[in-house]
Amino acid sequence: MLGGVDIDVPTLIIDDEYPTPDFGITRIEFQPGVQHMDGATALIYARTRHADSDFGRSERQQQVLRAIATKLRARGPLGQAWLAPGLLDGLDGAVTTTLPIARPDVLLGLAWLGSGLNPDELGQTRLSPESAPNYREEGSDLIWDSNDVRAVVDSFLTRPSEASEAATVQVLNGTAVSGLAGRVSGELERAGFTLIAPGNAPATDLPKTIVYDLTGKPRTSRRLAQQLGAERRQGAPDGVASTADIVVVVGQDAAK
After folding, report:
1. Nearest of 249, 244, 202 to residue 228 by alpha carbon
2. pLDDT tens-place string over residues 86-100
3. pTM here?
4. Residue 190: is its pLDDT beyond 70?
5. CATH top-level class of 5-121
Protein backbone atom coordinates (compact mmCIF):
# COMPACT_ATOMS: atom_id res chain seq x y z
CA MET A 1 0.00 0.00 0.00
CA LEU A 2 2.73 2.46 0.99
CA GLY A 3 5.39 0.77 -1.11
CA GLY A 4 7.63 0.17 1.91
CA VAL A 5 9.50 2.56 4.18
CA ASP A 6 13.11 3.74 4.47
CA ILE A 7 14.75 2.91 7.81
CA ASP A 8 18.24 3.97 8.89
CA VAL A 9 19.41 1.02 11.00
CA PRO A 10 21.82 2.52 13.56
CA THR A 11 23.83 -0.61 14.36
CA LEU A 12 24.13 -4.30 13.49
CA ILE A 13 21.15 -6.30 14.79
CA ILE A 14 21.33 -10.09 15.06
CA ASP A 15 18.52 -12.01 16.72
CA ASP A 16 19.02 -15.78 16.86
CA GLU A 17 15.71 -16.35 18.65
CA TYR A 18 13.13 -14.44 16.62
CA PRO A 19 9.78 -16.27 17.02
CA THR A 20 8.03 -17.73 13.98
CA PRO A 21 4.26 -18.23 13.46
CA ASP A 22 4.64 -22.00 14.02
CA PHE A 23 6.08 -21.36 17.53
CA GLY A 24 9.64 -21.98 16.46
CA ILE A 25 12.55 -19.56 16.19
CA THR A 26 14.67 -18.24 13.34
CA ARG A 27 17.72 -16.04 12.88
CA ILE A 28 17.22 -12.51 11.57
CA GLU A 29 19.87 -9.92 10.76
CA PHE A 30 19.83 -6.21 9.93
CA GLN A 31 22.98 -4.53 8.69
CA PRO A 32 23.57 -0.89 9.71
CA GLY A 33 22.64 1.84 7.24
CA VAL A 34 19.64 3.08 5.30
CA GLN A 35 17.46 0.24 4.02
CA HIS A 36 14.16 0.10 2.14
CA MET A 37 11.88 -2.33 3.99
CA ASP A 38 8.58 -3.78 2.91
CA GLY A 39 5.81 -4.19 5.49
CA ALA A 40 6.83 -7.69 6.61
CA THR A 41 10.48 -6.69 7.06
CA ALA A 42 9.61 -3.47 8.92
CA LEU A 43 7.39 -5.48 11.26
CA ILE A 44 10.25 -7.86 12.06
CA TYR A 45 12.54 -4.87 12.63
CA ALA A 46 10.01 -3.34 15.04
CA ARG A 47 9.48 -6.59 16.94
CA THR A 48 12.99 -7.96 17.38
CA ARG A 49 14.45 -7.52 20.86
CA HIS A 50 16.95 -10.29 21.64
CA ALA A 51 19.87 -8.34 20.14
CA ASP A 52 19.50 -5.67 22.82
CA SER A 53 16.37 -5.22 24.96
CA ASP A 54 12.72 -4.19 25.11
CA PHE A 55 13.93 -0.59 25.31
CA GLY A 56 15.78 -0.99 22.02
CA ARG A 57 12.65 -2.51 20.53
CA SER A 58 10.57 0.51 21.63
CA GLU A 59 13.05 2.82 19.87
CA ARG A 60 12.73 0.78 16.68
CA GLN A 61 8.94 0.86 16.89
CA GLN A 62 9.01 4.66 17.14
CA GLN A 63 11.47 4.76 14.24
CA VAL A 64 9.11 2.72 12.03
CA LEU A 65 6.13 4.91 12.95
CA ARG A 66 8.10 8.01 12.01
CA ALA A 67 9.09 6.43 8.70
CA ILE A 68 5.43 5.67 7.98
CA ALA A 69 4.49 9.28 8.79
CA THR A 70 7.22 10.54 6.47
CA LYS A 71 6.03 8.27 3.65
CA LEU A 72 2.42 9.37 4.12
CA ARG A 73 3.36 13.03 4.14
CA ALA A 74 5.20 12.61 0.85
CA ARG A 75 1.97 11.41 -0.79
CA GLY A 76 0.28 14.81 -0.36
CA PRO A 77 -3.35 15.41 0.70
CA LEU A 78 -4.98 13.53 -2.17
CA GLY A 79 -2.70 10.54 -1.83
CA GLN A 80 -3.30 10.44 1.92
CA ALA A 81 -7.06 10.58 1.42
CA TRP A 82 -6.82 7.71 -1.06
CA LEU A 83 -4.81 5.57 1.36
CA ALA A 84 -6.80 6.33 4.54
CA PRO A 85 -9.55 3.67 4.19
CA GLY A 86 -7.06 0.90 3.48
CA LEU A 87 -4.83 1.94 6.36
CA LEU A 88 -7.76 1.93 8.78
CA ASP A 89 -8.83 -1.50 7.52
CA GLY A 90 -5.33 -2.71 8.29
CA LEU A 91 -5.66 -1.35 11.82
CA ASP A 92 -9.01 -3.07 12.38
CA GLY A 93 -9.27 -4.09 16.02
CA ALA A 94 -6.44 -1.79 17.09
CA VAL A 95 -8.03 1.60 16.39
CA THR A 96 -11.62 2.72 16.95
CA THR A 97 -12.97 6.03 15.67
CA THR A 98 -16.36 7.73 15.45
CA LEU A 99 -15.19 9.85 12.53
CA PRO A 100 -17.21 9.17 9.36
CA ILE A 101 -14.07 8.46 7.35
CA ALA A 102 -16.05 7.05 4.44
CA ARG A 103 -17.14 10.58 3.59
CA PRO A 104 -14.90 12.26 1.00
CA ASP A 105 -14.99 15.63 2.79
CA VAL A 106 -13.79 14.04 6.04
CA LEU A 107 -10.99 12.20 4.24
CA LEU A 108 -9.84 15.36 2.51
CA GLY A 109 -9.95 17.28 5.79
CA LEU A 110 -7.82 14.65 7.52
CA ALA A 111 -5.43 14.62 4.58
CA TRP A 112 -5.10 18.39 4.77
CA LEU A 113 -4.22 18.15 8.48
CA GLY A 114 -1.76 15.35 7.79
CA SER A 115 -0.01 17.28 5.05
CA GLY A 116 1.05 19.88 7.62
CA LEU A 117 2.51 17.28 9.97
CA ASN A 118 6.29 17.31 10.11
CA PRO A 119 7.61 13.99 11.51
CA ASP A 120 10.75 15.74 12.74
CA GLU A 121 8.60 17.85 15.07
CA LEU A 122 6.75 14.93 16.65
CA GLY A 123 7.61 14.73 20.32
CA GLN A 124 8.32 11.41 21.96
CA THR A 125 9.56 10.10 25.26
CA ARG A 126 9.94 6.74 26.91
CA LEU A 127 10.46 5.23 30.33
CA SER A 128 13.83 3.56 30.75
CA PRO A 129 16.31 2.92 33.57
CA GLU A 130 18.13 6.06 32.40
CA SER A 131 15.11 8.40 32.56
CA ALA A 132 13.40 6.73 35.54
CA PRO A 133 16.06 4.97 37.63
CA ASN A 134 13.80 3.98 40.55
CA TYR A 135 11.93 0.79 39.72
CA ARG A 136 11.55 -2.78 40.86
CA GLU A 137 11.26 -6.03 38.97
CA GLU A 138 8.35 -8.39 39.50
CA GLY A 139 8.88 -11.38 37.27
CA SER A 140 9.18 -9.99 33.75
CA ASP A 141 7.48 -6.70 34.70
CA LEU A 142 9.11 -3.41 35.67
CA ILE A 143 7.19 -1.39 38.27
CA TRP A 144 8.15 2.27 37.94
CA ASP A 145 8.27 4.77 40.79
CA SER A 146 5.29 7.11 40.33
CA ASN A 147 7.38 10.21 41.10
CA ASP A 148 9.86 9.27 38.38
CA VAL A 149 7.02 8.72 35.90
CA ARG A 150 5.52 12.11 36.76
CA ALA A 151 8.91 13.80 36.31
CA VAL A 152 9.41 12.20 32.89
CA VAL A 153 5.93 13.26 31.75
CA ASP A 154 6.30 16.79 33.15
CA SER A 155 9.63 17.17 31.38
CA PHE A 156 8.13 15.96 28.12
CA LEU A 157 5.14 18.33 28.33
CA THR A 158 7.25 21.37 29.23
CA ARG A 159 8.32 23.13 26.06
CA PRO A 160 11.96 24.08 26.62
CA SER A 161 13.75 27.02 25.15
CA GLU A 162 17.22 26.53 23.75
CA ALA A 163 18.66 28.83 26.42
CA SER A 164 17.06 26.87 29.26
CA GLU A 165 18.47 23.62 27.87
CA ALA A 166 22.04 24.91 28.39
CA ALA A 167 23.23 22.01 26.28
CA THR A 168 26.86 21.08 25.77
CA VAL A 169 27.96 19.69 22.42
CA GLN A 170 30.85 17.41 21.46
CA VAL A 171 31.94 16.83 17.88
CA LEU A 172 33.49 13.49 16.97
CA ASN A 173 35.27 12.80 13.70
CA GLY A 174 33.65 9.92 11.86
CA THR A 175 36.02 10.19 8.89
CA ALA A 176 39.69 9.79 8.08
CA VAL A 177 40.00 13.55 7.42
CA SER A 178 42.42 14.92 10.01
CA GLY A 179 41.22 17.91 12.05
CA LEU A 180 37.64 17.78 10.79
CA ALA A 181 36.06 17.60 14.26
CA GLY A 182 38.08 20.60 15.42
CA ARG A 183 37.08 22.66 12.39
CA VAL A 184 33.38 21.85 12.79
CA SER A 185 33.61 22.57 16.54
CA GLY A 186 34.93 26.04 15.78
CA GLU A 187 32.14 26.72 13.31
CA LEU A 188 29.49 25.61 15.78
CA GLU A 189 31.01 27.66 18.59
CA ARG A 190 30.85 30.77 16.40
CA ALA A 191 27.19 29.90 15.73
CA GLY A 192 26.45 30.14 19.46
CA PHE A 193 26.67 26.55 20.64
CA THR A 194 28.58 25.48 23.77
CA LEU A 195 31.30 23.02 22.79
CA ILE A 196 33.54 20.67 24.73
CA ALA A 197 36.77 19.21 23.36
CA PRO A 198 36.33 17.30 20.08
CA GLY A 199 37.42 13.72 19.56
CA ASN A 200 37.31 10.75 17.22
CA ALA A 201 34.41 8.38 16.64
CA PRO A 202 34.99 4.60 16.65
CA ALA A 203 34.33 4.42 12.89
CA THR A 204 36.10 6.47 10.21
CA ASP A 205 33.84 5.78 7.23
CA LEU A 206 30.61 7.59 8.13
CA PRO A 207 29.09 9.04 4.92
CA LYS A 208 26.71 11.54 6.53
CA THR A 209 26.77 13.64 9.70
CA ILE A 210 24.43 12.56 12.53
CA VAL A 211 23.35 14.58 15.59
CA TYR A 212 22.71 12.44 18.68
CA ASP A 213 20.57 13.90 21.47
CA LEU A 214 21.79 12.03 24.56
CA THR A 215 19.95 13.81 27.36
CA GLY A 216 16.81 15.28 25.78
CA LYS A 217 17.73 18.72 24.43
CA PRO A 218 15.33 18.96 21.47
CA ARG A 219 15.63 22.68 20.68
CA THR A 220 19.42 22.65 20.61
CA SER A 221 19.73 19.34 18.77
CA ARG A 222 17.16 20.46 16.20
CA ARG A 223 19.05 23.70 15.47
CA LEU A 224 22.31 21.73 15.26
CA ALA A 225 20.78 19.34 12.74
CA GLN A 226 19.50 22.26 10.67
CA GLN A 227 22.86 24.02 10.85
CA LEU A 228 24.70 20.93 9.63
CA GLY A 229 22.03 19.53 7.31
CA ALA A 230 22.20 16.36 9.38
CA GLU A 231 19.89 13.65 10.67
CA ARG A 232 18.87 13.86 14.33
CA ARG A 233 18.62 10.79 16.58
CA GLN A 234 17.81 10.08 20.22
CA GLY A 235 20.35 8.31 22.42
CA ALA A 236 24.09 7.85 22.25
CA PRO A 237 25.96 6.61 19.18
CA ASP A 238 27.12 3.01 19.36
CA GLY A 239 30.41 2.61 21.19
CA VAL A 240 30.61 6.25 22.34
CA ALA A 241 30.66 7.51 25.94
CA SER A 242 30.49 11.28 26.24
CA THR A 243 29.81 13.79 29.01
CA ALA A 244 28.12 16.12 26.51
CA ASP A 245 24.37 16.49 26.14
CA ILE A 246 24.59 16.24 22.37
CA VAL A 247 27.15 14.41 20.25
CA VAL A 248 27.73 15.29 16.61
CA VAL A 249 29.47 12.58 14.60
CA VAL A 250 30.66 14.30 11.43
CA GLY A 251 30.69 12.32 8.22
CA GLN A 252 32.17 12.72 4.77
CA ASP A 253 29.54 15.31 3.85
CA ALA A 254 31.10 17.74 6.37
CA ALA A 255 34.52 17.42 4.69
CA LYS A 256 33.28 18.80 1.35
Report:
1. 249
2. 666 666 666 677 877
3. 0.49
4. yes
5. alpha beta
